[in-house]
């Protein structure tokens, strides 16, 4: 009888319990006993996880394994060929170390799963900043019901120019939401999008985006080698118009 492949669960599952359990029909489901990184590495080296082919990880698994760096990748069982990451951003994973391992550890993520939800929060923050919500909320929590001194007047989103830096899935989703509030959308990207993807948003240079936007939304990956670390700082903000 052919044994089932082993699938390792790293981290907790919040909603998809039935889906995870259904994998038991085709695979042997394994969970580590370790409670911290040192114990997990030792568990890997002990051979208890030998035969694991795939690991599925959630963000909270970092409390047990720490970052998926070179040390951890080299401690994983050699049978493990795939790491399925439940998240769009994979800054917790050293992909270069995974690629360099022999055999390579292939990493997958879910880049579009939270595009809509992230754009919702993005739009909430934009409206909150324009309407000065945070100052009002803080005043209410402090018992300052009559706003003394008076809060600065807010701004209407309608007619404002939203500059989206990074027109990926989240940026394109945000564009649709911003236009519902009457905002004009311009964008800058590594490369200009097709008419179908840009859906009418105007492509501009980075300098043009800074100089003509009333609101700027950064939709870039925050990784070690990411341009976000050096893309936008004090010199760039001095060129943004004050409105």
TrEMBL record:
Molecular-function GO terms, alphabetical? glyoxylate reductase (NADPH) activity; hydroxypyruvate reductase [NAD(P)H] activity; NAD binding
Annotated ranges, domain D-isomer specific 2-hydroxyacid dehydrogenase NAD-binding: 124-223
Coiled-coil ranges per the record?
A: none
Q: Name one Pfam family in it.
A: 2-Hacid_dh_C
* Keyword vocabulary terms for this entry: Oxidoreductase
Classification via CDD domains: Mand_dh_like (cd12168)
Gene Ontology CC entries for this record = cytosol
D-isomer specific 2-hydroxyacid dehydrogenase catalytic domain span = 16-122
**InterPro entries recorded:** D-isomer_2-hydroxyacid_DH, D-isomer_2_OHA_DH_cat_dom, D-isomer_DH_CS1, D-isomer_DH_NAD-bd, NAD(P)-bd_dom_sf
Homology family: Belongs to the D-isomer specific 2-hydroxyacid dehydrogenase family.
User: What is the protein name given in its UniProt record?
Assistant: Glyoxylate reductase
Query: What is the organism field in this record?
Result: Aspergillus ochraceoroseus
